Amino acid sequence: MSDEEKEPRNPGRGTRLGLGALSGLLAGFAALAVAELVAAGVRPQAGPVVAVGGAAIDRTPAAVKDWAIRNFGTDDMLILQLGILIVSGLLALALGVLGLRHRRIAAAGILGFGAIGAVAATSRPDSAALTDALPSIMGALVAALLLYALVGRLLAPRRQQARSPEPAGESWDRRGFVIAATTAAAATAGAGALGRALNGAGGRDALASRKSVNLPVPSSRAPVVPRRAQVRVAGVSPFITPNEDFYRVDTALVVPTVDTTAWRLRIHDQGVRRPLTLSFDELLRRELIERDITLTCVSNEVGGPYVGNARWIGVRLADLLAECGVRPPSQGGPADQLVARSVDGMTIGSPVEDVMDGRDALLAVGMNGEPLPFGHGFPVRMVVPGLYGYVSACKWIEDIELTTFDAYDAYWVRRDWAREAPIKTQSRIDTPKPFARPRSGTVMVAGVAWAQHRGIDKVEVRVDDGPWQEATLAAEDSRDTWRQWSYPWRATKGGHTVTVRATDRTGQVQTEKRSRTIPDGAGGWHSVVVTVE
To answer: Is the Cα torsion angle 254, 260, 261, 262 positive or negative in sign?
Structure first.
């Protein structure tokens, strides 16, 4: 057998393009794996996927964010991360193919994307050091070198006999490429696994700290929920929302896992005569109260799911502020805005007047009889009855700054949401569901209504264009919780539209006028269309 016959044949055009794309994909995976490994030594939030995703969230118009929440719900963050990974994979494939003709340009392209990740990481609100750039930089550097090497194997000349009509540059080092690609894939998998393990170690410490929390018995217990607060109609939401079913809407791509031993809360700035710093244990030693409070997200569409009721345990925020010498504006205090900051850099601005007007505004540490779940703000979060979450419900809180609305715009305000946002009077039909096909006869229409800190006084139901009929209200727990209702409808065959509206205790009737969630919450009546058989 001749020397030429022992050499591998030149790959066809399609094969060469495929191997180039594979080289790019391996380089892309290597970038992410190395970045995750380096992030374990810096902080998990400095990884390129999280950093770029966070930057994308920050720069996304409010209307687009609202659309994402409406269509993807609590999976919007997962969709974003999958989108980032898919786009990264496609770019890696393209750079691999480009490298077949322009190897240095392709490698430089990877370095450019690494620079984008580095800038995104260091520009995040929770970034405290330039070391946050290291995961993206190191990942890109390794990926660029790997792509350069793999493509080089595809372009490496083999020994040519003088009579060979093919130019040397059209040959490739098959054995060298296979060895390099296999080694790179194994090393990438190992780096990724090690990175995940190291990043998970910090999470395990936080998990252990949560398991060690024993919530003290509150000095002021919540009243027993009235027996008739829950209507006996199938399909209606439970009066107390289980933790696993409670809605979660925030901007955190990675849920912060905070170790209570390292957590601190600082209260400071304008009008704070006695600044205060508290550890978690010090907070637990203070007087705790227990209250049932319904929370509502401003992104909740009319009839939407982003409302839930829970039993919270926490410290009265007004007591802490008073201890620091803070006075509300009505008593001559200079600060009218409380800016809460979370460990991930989120800022939420609340009116000082509201949190100090006597309502049960809390720094909550417990939810439905257990320490806060990580996704709902462990170890400490704010809960303020009557205000939408984006102006009150700061999760993973670590800093409270007293300032003015004129001096500072919090995160959502800078994105066209209103500075102040009391929850609007709303009601929802839980059953029958839209497009249901109930049988003629008595059909129970039931659901929930809410107007936190004002209370629900009346709920009415209308079928088609008929008169409003008053529904039966379930027992009220408190004015800070939602209230269930039911109405026995004598349904006749055919298509019908069932509509609900509520009236709060101030006499304010739920508005008919439809409005978007932006800038201060959705408005309008909730209706369902059914076909009675």
So the answer is: positive
